[in-house]
Amino acid sequence: MPRRLLLFIGIIILLCFNRLEAQNVVFDTIGNALITADTIVKETKTHKAPKAKKQHSPKTATIMSACLPGLGQVYNRKWWKVPIVYAGLGGIGYMAYSNHYEYKSYLHAYEFKTGDLPEGATLNAHESDLANRYGESQLQTYKESYRRDFEFYSILTVAWYGLNILDACVDGHLYTYDISDDLSLSVDPYLRSTETFVPMPQYAQVGLSIKVTF
User: Fold this and answer.
1) Do 153 and 96 form a contact (C-beta atoms < 8 A)?
2) Which of 36, 23, 64 is nearest to 165 (CA)?
3) pTM check: above 0.70
4) Residue 72 and residue 85: Cα distance in Å, rounded?
């Protein structure tokens, strides 16, 4: 009796094992095994759609530099240009501010000399020193000179700001431009003889041959 029971249990275990194996196999319409279910899962995980490569946008670089000078250069990976941008803006901007400050100082000193200083306005130490040191004509000359310099440096500041935007735009367009390493230029002497149809001495064509490889 125990032998029969053990045999019966063994048969049941064998049938269950075969059934589980059969479930992990995919069959076609004629009953041939194609591929296991585990393999399908692995292949599904392995074959992933490639991610689209992000395109470099010159428009984005231009807008970024227009919003914040140097930001477009960072986007174009031209980090070394950022200090140049800010050094130019800082230097030219300081000159514009300095000339504007001196213009206002000489203006107030001139108004004090001519009696046109607005009522209630007072001169600071620097303006009082200018009023005591120079006459009306000198104050007028210096005032106009500083005004012209202020306008010049103001225009130069705007031009530098625009140049920063233009530089980011150009670098954005050239970011994906591929320059081949095979680019070369060779200049060689050129000599070719020519023959005439009548008995005459031969002539030669002499010149230079220029070859460009790209």
Assistant:
1) yes
2) 64
3) no
4) 11
